[in-house]
Amino acid sequence: MKIAILGASGYAGGELIRLLVHHSTAKVTCATSRKLAGTPIDQVHPHLKGFCDLKFENPAADDIDADVAFLAVPHTAAMTYAGKLLSRGIKVVDLSADYRLPKEIYEKVYGVTHSDYFQAPYGIPELHRNECINAKFVANPGCFPTGATLAAAPLAKHAHTVIFDSKTGVSGAGDNPSATTHYPNVGDNIGPYKWTTHRHLAEMKQELLWLGSKAKCYFTPHLVPVNRGILTTAHILLNEPIEQKEVEKLYSDFYKGEYFVRYQKPSLAAVRGSNFCDVMVESEGLRVVAISAIDNLVKGASGQAIQNMNLMCGLNEQDGLVGAGLLP
Ligand SMILES: NC(=O)c1ccc[n+]([C@@H]2O[C@H](COP(=O)([O-])OP(=O)(O)OC[C@H]3O[C@@H](n4cnc5c(N)ncnc54)[C@H](OP(=O)(O)O)[C@@H]3O)[C@@H](O)[C@H]2O)c1
Question: How does strand 68-71 pair with strand 27-31?
Fold first, then answer.
């Protein structure tokens, strides 16, 4: 299976190449970057030396030859490629935000006009597997909404309020340096940002609604001095109290058979580099604290995108994704 990665010089694109090395049938044959066309991939991603001997290229969408294309490009760029690739029979997984929300909500939240809108399955496979199987296009969810939604999903419809508090590693901001990600501002520090206005809140609300929940939803992210990972604490405020044993059973029933969701004490290190989401819950009656940990670049982006590709192409969902985390 020929794979094109658009935006292959970025963090999510590099992670797609790293993970696909271990896939049984998918082979990366095209890796794009506008600025680095002609440069060997291992000059930008030295960890991939010996695993991928391609050079970056900058083809027009009409010249891309692939069975599946991953759009690991910023929002608003993805919408310029998606329709063109699909019209040529190429399956597409979009890692950007361009197709995750209904058009009018997307335009309001992102403050841009959508030039090529169509509806797409929202690719959290644990919740939307049937929509993703054999799909031609999947909108891969945001990193925060993946961890947050998986933390709260089993209890969502019993809640009247859900408050998500997330800590994220710096690679979530992509490879473009900024004052926020400058080492002295991040190192030995924890910085809250977009306290009430982060754009991923819209996806979280959408998923709670989809789960049959009428809960009010709030979200505050914090930047922490690690490269990878998102730890989300979900405070789930309930209409009726729930006992610890009952809530544990609810979670284990909900995620029964889900290989990538593990019920255990979450920590960033245990999921680093892997496609796992670790979740655990504690009840104090009317409030349940559910905590999840994911790697933002794997379950929060490229790993989940490959999980979706596997479903879209009728392959084993775990293909290319069976590695354990990197502890310590
Ligand atoms: N980082 C994460 O943890 C994470 C998690 C979930 C989802 N995502 C999403 O995944 C996408 C990529 O994120 P990232 O963190 O990998 O970003 P990044 O490190 O900034 O990389 C962006 C990539 O896109 C290319 N690019 C930028 N503008 C482009 C355009 N207009 N047309 C074509 N290519 C363009 C860049 O190369 P050139 O400029 O050389 O073309 C680069 O290869 C984003 O939509 C992001 O929101 C990221």
Answer: unpaired
